Amino acid sequence: MEKIVAQGLLYDFYGELLTEHQRRIYEDVIFNDMSLSEIAEEQGISRQGVHDLIKRCDRILAGYEEKLRLVEKFNQTKLMVKEIKELAGRYKESGNEALIDKIEEISEKIGQL
Fold first, then answer.
1. Whole-prediction pTM
2. Phi, psi values for residue 31, rounded to 5°
3. In angstroms, rounded to a whole number, what is the distance separating the alpha carbons of residues 70 and 99?
4. Residues whose CB falls within 8 Å of the CB of residue 77, separated by 6 or more in sequence, listed in order
5. pLDDT digits over 43-73, tens only?
6. C-alpha pair distances (Å), 38 with each of 15, 50, 99, 106
7. For residues 47 and 40, is the Cβ–Cβ distance under 8 A?
8. Which of 113, 7, 5 is nearest to 59 (CA)?
9. Side-chain half-sphere of 105: how many Cα atoms within 13 Å?
10. Which Pfam families match (predicted)?
11. Interacting residues of 4 by C-beta distance below 8 A, sequence separation 6+
């Protein structure tokens, strides 16, 4: 399940950089949960051809992430936003000025991503 989520995220960020043919087949596997045999029959190619194309797409998408780190930055930003929300909630409860300093520090980090 984690692999499919990771593939979906990579596709969300970099899928437009694949060819139309690659996108169509990759979407069938990742989002439409079709088997390699079903896709092969539908596309008129071999099951091995579908398998190879999916592996190639995985490598291409992982290569983009290795260079650009957009998914990593997205995940870091999500964690920091969650921390900001928690700190803001605690500030409302306590009125502690140190929490505001921490919120400002995190927001600066987000700005640097």
1. 0.79
2. -100, -30
3. 29
4. 110, 113
5. 999 999 999 999 999 999 999 999 999 999 9
6. 22, 10, 55, 48
7. yes
8. 7
9. 8
10. UPF0122
11. 30
3-state secondary structure of 87: helix
Reading the block at residue 112, the tokens are 């640097």
Output the six-digit token pair for 55: 């592996």
Residue 8 token pair: 């979906």
Please name the amino acid found at residue 90: R
Which of 79, 76, 62 is closest to 15 using CA atoms? 62
Q: Distance between CA 58 and CA 21 in Å, rounded?
A: 14
Q: Are 64 and 17 in contact (CB under 8 A)?
A: yes
